[in-house]
Design brief:
20% strand; DNA-binding; Arc Repressor Mutant, subunit A; Dna Ligase, domain 1; homodimer; 166 residues; two-stranded antiparallel ribbon; flat; 6 helices
DNA sequence: TTCTGTGCAAAGGATTTGCATAGAC
DNA sequence: GTCTATGCAAATCCTTTGCACAGAA
């Protein structure tokens, strides 16, 4: 679903390794469900929410099944560990890779729900400038441009033409 | 709660008048609860959510009391009428004046929850440029800078100093 | 009189929590 | 063994809906 045209950044360790360090530093434990989730989530770069993840994972009958509450709890840990980034879209929490992935913002197509990534140093500069003017200590930001993507505009044109002909 | 340093824009009619036009154009009716809400909401410029509004309005015992569902339904109408703008913050819907108020974005203090407004033409330019590069038809955007406001940084310093002395 | 709006309670959707048990260290 | 993690169901939070009744036009 994501347009991952930003390329990857080389990192010193894998998400799994990084998560293990995170757990150790807090005296927490590595478990089978957590390993399953990390494997699945980092298999490909994409945006996802809890339900999408649950649909893709083994069903309740399977021994590898992970409960919904565990998914929520584990994703929260991943965010704390800096592995994932989370943001809200239409009332649901959306997750995406953070660790080893460059900072970026999104274009959100309100038609097909696709999230297109883009990177802008100028935006960061502008953000910091605004914050400075307001004596504000920045910790982060959220910038989502909404509208209709190229594909959907095309699709609408086609539909419209058909209708016009009838 | 809002820092309304952006000044007002002169408008041809009051929110109430505008809302009446809106209702008429759709064959809908003006009622007492709607009038009460418009009066209250436009008494002062501020950011608010449904619960804050409900707390400020007359209680259930009063004849002027407005039910929770009505508040939700009416605020939705105000947004449709262009009177209010709505956005989501930490899972709850926050409303602010739109009609007669200039376009702007926010700095959000994660400490005191305050929303500070700022206006940037450069941001709009940057947004449109990014959209154009991606063949994207913009309909709007959401930009929230999070961090800690000046007052809260000061407060923290004071607390910290006290602690250090003990 | 005819519909739209209101209030209340119930329903919904997403996420969190309580608790007994499984399992990591 | 001890203490964290899991699964399930129940609970929460915010918002929407169903329905009978009130009240604009």
């Amino acid at each position: 679903m994501a347009d991952s045209s930003l390329g990857n950044v080389s990192v010193s360790s894998t998400p799994l390794e990084r998560f293990e360090e995170f757990l150790q530093s807090r005296g927490k434990r590595m478990t089978r469900p957590q390993r399953l989730l990390i494997d699945h989530v980092f298999r490909q770069h994409s945006h996802f929410d809890v339900d999408m993840l649950l649909d893709e994972l083994p069903q309740r009958s399977d021994s590898d099944h992970v409960g919904r509450a565990t998914v929520y709890r584990t994703l929260t840990k991943f965010v704390e560990a800096g592995l994932l980034r989370a943001f809200t879209l239409d009332g649901r929490t959306v997750y995406e890779h953070d660790y080893g992935y460059p900072q970026h913002d999104h274009l959100h197509c309100t038609e097909c729900q696709r999230l297109i990534e883009f990177q802008s140093d100028e935006l960061i500069r502008l953000r910091d400038e605004v914050a400075h003017k307001n004596n504000f200590r920045v910790s982060g930001h959220r910038f989502i441009i909404s509208g209709i993507c190229h594909d959907c505009v095309q699709a609408k044109r086609r539909t419209k033409r058909k209708v016009d002909l009838v």
